[in-house]
Every structure is written in C-alpha cells, then in structure tokens.
Amino acid sequence: MKPVFFALLFSCAGAHAAMGPFDVYEQALRNDPVFLGAIKERDAGLENRTIGRAGLLPRLSYNYNKGRNNSEAHLPDGRGGSYRDDRNYNSYGSTFSLQQPLFDYEAYANYRKGVAQALFADESFRDKSQALLVRVLSYYTQALFAQDQIDIARAKKKAFEQQFQQNEHLFKAGEGTRTDILEAESRYELATAEEIQALDEQDASLRELGALIGVQSVNIDDLAPLNQSFAAFSLSPANYATWHELALTNNPVLASQRQSLEVARYEVERNRAGHLPKITAYASSRKQESDSGNTYNQRYDTNTIGVEVSLPLYAGGAISASTRQASRAMEQAEYELEGKTRETLIELRRQFSACLSGVSKLRAYQKALTSAEALVVSTKQSILGGERVNLDALNAEQQLYSTRRDLAQARYDYLMAWTKLHYYAGNLRDTDLAKVDEAFGPERTR
C-alpha cells in the first residue's frame, strides 16, 4: 500500500513542484531500511553500557523451597536396642541474600568495555547518518547525469540524422560520397548505443532513489534539475590543514575505530583479571524449618554478614592464552585504526583538491562549450565554402556534445566533492544538503 501511496503522491505533486535532494533525504529518514536498521543497531549497542555497569552493582536474590518428606528413622531406645520412627512432615526454607563486589577487576573491565561499545554504536550511527546524506545526493546526481546523457545522445542522433539525410541527398545529386553517408550513419548508431546505456544507468539510479524512500522507482520528471547557472560554494575553512584537523577530531569512522580499539583494550584487561582475586561483601537472612532429618521439627532464623575472597590458582593455562589472544586482537585494532586514518585523510585530500580544481574546471568547460558551439557554426559555413569536409562537421558536432557531457559531469562532481569533503571531515549536516539543494532549480521542460 505504501509504494502505491507514494507513487500517487509523486504523480499529483509533480505538476506543482519537483523534488530536490533535501526532499528525498527527508523521506529517506522515514523509509530507508539501511538508516532505520542503523537506528536499531545503535539502540542495541547503547545497552552495553547498562550491561557492563550491572557487574559493579549489588546483586539481590531470594530463594524459597517447600517440600513433603517421608522418612524412616531408627533411634536408640535407651536399653541397648532401637526402635523405628516413621516421620511424615513438611519442610521449608527461604533465603534472602545480598552481594556487593568490593574488588572485581573483571567486572570493572567489562563495564569500561561496555562504555566503549556504547560509544562505538553512537559513532557508527553518526557515520551512517552522514552517509545517508551522501547516498541521497549520489543517487540523485547519477539519475540527473544519466538524463543529461540521454538528452545529449538524442540531440546527437538528431544532428547526425540531419547530416545523414543531407549527405544522402548530396550523394544522389552526385555532389557527395558514400563515405560521408557511412560516417554520419556510424555516428548516429554510436549515439543510439550511448542513449541505451544512459537509459539503463538512469533506471538503476531511479530505482536506488526509490529504495531510499520506499517506492519501486522514481520518475525523472519528479526530480528538480541542476540550475545551469549555479555558483560554486565558498570553501570554509579555505586551508587544508584545518580540514585535516577536523577529520582527525570529528570523523565518525575514525571515532568508532578508536572506540573499537578501546573495546579490544578492555577485553585484554578482562582476561588479565582472571589472575586477580575477587572480594565480595555479602549479607543473607535465612529461615528454615525441618530442613533435614537432623533438624526435624526445628526452626532456625539465621542472619549472616561477611566478606568472601576468591583467588584463582590455576586454570590450565587458559587465562594466559586468552590474554595473549586478546592482546593480538588489540594490536590488530591498532593497525586497523592507522589504516582507516590514512584512508580517510587520502579521501579528504582528494575531495579538497576536487573542490579547488572543480571551480577552475567549471570555468574551463563553460568556455570550451562556448567555443565548441561557435566551432560547429563555423565548420558548417566552411563546408558551404568548400574549405571543410563532412568529417570536420561530424567531429565538430561530436566535440560539442562531448563538452556538454563533460560540463554536466563536472558540475555534479563538484557538488559531490563539496559534500564528501564535509563527510570525511565528520561535520556533514542536513543544513549542508539544504545548501546543495538550492543549486537545483524548478521542474525541467523538454
């Protein structure tokens, strides 16, 4: 029912306003199974703090038993003989006990491990929350770029078809060659193949978007296109060193990896505690009546308070082996943290450089597009004057459409680089996606 509802909603709303990336994100918060699963994963992980703390708190218990006893006792009769006493009686006992660890390093290590596991769950969720912003924009721009490629491929087909018809007409008039016809036909078929590929890529991207918001697919007309005149964003801070420090401090992947290292460290301590004593204070109140044959028809009320010391002596080497095993796992976590740090900083630098170079690339591609458009016009005029041949016109058309495609790709790449830069720095927020959303205009008209 939900997919049908959203499909009807989009079809009704599409005539009024197209969805921007932020609209998709708001719906993904309620429908993306990956994100919803991450919420439950975090909630489950946070319970580790309570589980670990429980080992440090008092343990209170109550036991009660009641039974029916049939026994046969042989008792001395005072004359050197004995007599038999058949006893049928009820017995019961109840114990109320309280234990409080005074020194239990294993319980303490478990508590610190639980705290680290809870922090790991929190940081892991923060990463998946920011990753959702990246996924939304990635699928969104992929769908739009596929549509740009479709539009470009169709424009190429139209231009090459006109060129084909013109060449065929000239050939029939004895002014052209068969080669000119074949060249135009070849370019047309290549454009057709590009259109088919772009349609497949768009279908996949739209289905990925649909999966985020709980529908089978999204219609491309429901998406707001990129404003062709959008301006590049200011980069703040402008120097890489600050971004570097931000990533080391705020990146949730690195933060969760550090907590994973803490988990491994306290697992070592937990195993090492197997060599240490445990000291526990305890108190109990016990009531017994006819608890055994020796206490037949007797009642006892006993209150006890004391301290218990438990000292492990030998466990077959298992404790030492477990400690060594946990130590190796901790060393592995250290290397994994170092690897994640290097990987994150490499990606951070890549996205920072892409933001800086992206501005220059956008300007260069825009100028190249203007030149390519002028080249097509100039080449066609030169062909009429006999200075250029048919192949020159086809090449000029090809260059024009390639430049349009590259410019579209550069625009989307810039937006993704700006978003990913904030993601790897660990400070990507929904307000950043709202800023990116402003670069997308009203519904497209084709």
Automatic annotation (TrEMBL):
UniProt protein name: Peptidase
A single GO cellular-component term on record: efflux pump complex
InterPro entries hit by this protein: OMP_efflux (IPR003423), T1SS_OMP_TolC (IPR010130), TolC-like (IPR051906)
The keyword Transmembrane is assigned to this record: yes
PANTHER family: OUTER MEMBRANE PROTEIN TOLC
Record flagged with keyword Transmembrane helix: no
Key words, A-Z: Cell outer membrane, Membrane, Signal, Transmembrane, Transmembrane beta strand, Transport
Molecular function GO terms recorded: efflux transmembrane transporter activity; porin activity
Organism from which the protein derives: Pseudomonas orientalis
Family the UniProt entry places it in: Belongs to the outer membrane factor (OMF) (TC 1.B.17) family.
Compartments (UniProt record): Cell outer membrane
Signal peptide (from-to): 1-17
